[in-house]
Design brief:
Blueprint: H1 6-23, H2 29-39, H3 43-54
Helix pairs in contact: 1-2
Length: 55
């Protein structure tokens, strides 16, 4: 991914969460991990993104 992939990753996370919510499904943390892996996000960057979504 590009250097400025933050917004793309956040979009993918939010899209997944929204899809689960609308479908009445539980969130699968392994699928969230898959988003991080597909984006090539290291653990520190992934943690930063998740924390920023909680603020």
């Amino acid at each position: 991914m590009a250097k400025n992939d933050y917004h793309v990753i956040v979009y993918r996370i939010l899209l997944y969460l929204y899809t689960c919510l609308k479908g009445g499904e539980d969130v699968d943390t392994k699928r969230l991990d898959g988003i991080a892996i597909a984006a090539g996000a290291n653990e520190r960057y992934w943690h930063y993104i998740l924390c920023s979504l909680l603020d």
